[in-house]
Fold:
Amino acid sequence: MNTNRWVRLFTWQRMNKNSEEEENKEQEPKEKKEETTKLNWKEWIIDPSEEFYYTWLQIMILPICYNWVIIIFRTCFYAIEEKFVATWLTLDYICDLFYVLDTVIGFRTGFLEQGILVRDLSLLKKRYMRSSRFKWDIASLLPTDLLYLKLGIHTPLVRVNRFLRTSRMNEALDRMETRTSYPNTFRVAKLMLYIFVLIHWNACVYFSLSNYIGFGADPWVYPNISDPDFAATRRQYFYCFWFSTLILTTVGDTPPPEREEEYLFLVADMLIAVLVFASVVGSMGDVISSLRDRDNVFFPNHELVKGYLRSRRISKELQKRVNDWYQHLHINKKITRENEILRHLPITLQTAIAVSVHLPTMSKVTIFQNCENSLLEQLVLKLTPQVYSPGEYVCKKGDVGHEMYIIKEGKLAVVADDGVTQFAVLGEGNFFGEISILNIKGNKSGNRRTANIRSIGYSDLFSLSKEDLTETLLEYPAAKRLLEEKGHQILTKMGMLEETDEGEGEVEKTEDKVKRLEASLEALQTKLARLIAELESSARKMMQRVELLELQTEGWEGIVAEGAQGEIEEWEKVKEREIGDGDGDGDGEKEEEKEEEEEPIVEGERGEGDGGEESLGEKEKNAGGIEESENEKEETEEEQIKTETQDQKRD
Structure:
């Protein structure tokens, strides 16, 4: 039974394996098909920043240079044209094929719009066809070879329109100059290429002019080709190239011209030679100045330091040490100004370069192990390279530590106070001074150096200052606590940490917090008492002001009532006079006036019988008007009081 079970298991496992293999075999052709279908040639777009475009530009240099060199060469040296006509035609049409492919690539070359690569074929075609490059490309592909049918097969000058594709070669050379690690050397090589093409063209024109005048007609032209020494085609080209070089380099030592054509040719060559000489001198001057600027950026300016030492009359021994230090930097290419060199790059690229160069060294430091990568990336940007000469002290015992050091290359010795006895030797990857920049409480040394460290030979170190570390740790509180804990552990192992009770430290912390809270509470209480006193004083002032206003208003009411009563009496006297004019004579009026003065109430009653109803109505109206005027005065006074109270509240 057991054997049957094992057999069944094995058969089941084999069946599963076979099924898996079949599935894999079925999936492999599907994956291949998917890979082939991924690259759709109809939607193929070229990114100008990719490697393919850069490689294609380099390839296009060959057909363009071929046309610039060979067309004029075949036109002037007709013997070579006749001898290798099949080879030339083959090479011509191969170059034309490259021109056609370059035009197709132009239709499919993308461009950036708002930082994004445009992949729409219709937009790419429109942009390319509207550009000036499309016109030059089409002009360079015109089938001018059809003129062979009329002028003959040995007239390669009909292909002169192929020169119009030169802009692609300039683009390729510019791209190569930006990518090469030796731009100055490349500039010199490019200049030499231009000079070679110019001398080549001049040599071909000189040979053609000699043929026009007659070979051997005078000493200035090419010698007679009937002479066996000058009959070979190779000798003809080399002689013309040498003669052209003598003229364009202004070396001279050429036969004097005798004909007008020769004079004109030499004048033109002399003018071209002046431009060539100026371009060569200017280009070489630019190269030399750029090299000098590069040295000044990479290394400190030695000439300035030398001048300073001479002006201050520094001892020769110290001058020799300075010169040896500079010599070591130049010979071994030690760069001490990395931050100034990389400052023009974006911060992301600066971080990437610093991480690739310094992160392996930084990760060897014990206190920085297990820290965040972002913290290490920030710290590597703060590292400063330093170079120490043989016998030079990096730090001495008792000095206040402001930075820590990481050894990149070289050896340093931990020596005694006499400077001879060595306790230990530190090598590549070691570090020291890390405790002095952490400000750990309880450190017996008090952030001072505990040993003398001297460079045995030339030593390359990285220094990290205390200020840079503190500034960086402000953004990483967790890393700060971790570093302090590691520093405590290292100090306890070294026996340099004062033993303190953790409970006492916590109690001190709580007491500090309580004191801080009490101080803040007292400050708040004083502020509150000040505000209450101000409120009470303002309330008292307001009450005094209201009382004064009330006293003023009480006097105003008595004056208003007396004035109203006098007006009523005057009005009644006038009305009674009018009534007296209609009933009696003048004597009666005088008596009535006297009676009115003596008994005003009786006169009033008598007026009521003689039409007093009208006089009473008018009296009521006048009394109502007086009351309205009094009400208006009271309202204005109340408004004034309100405004004054509001102003006092605002104050």
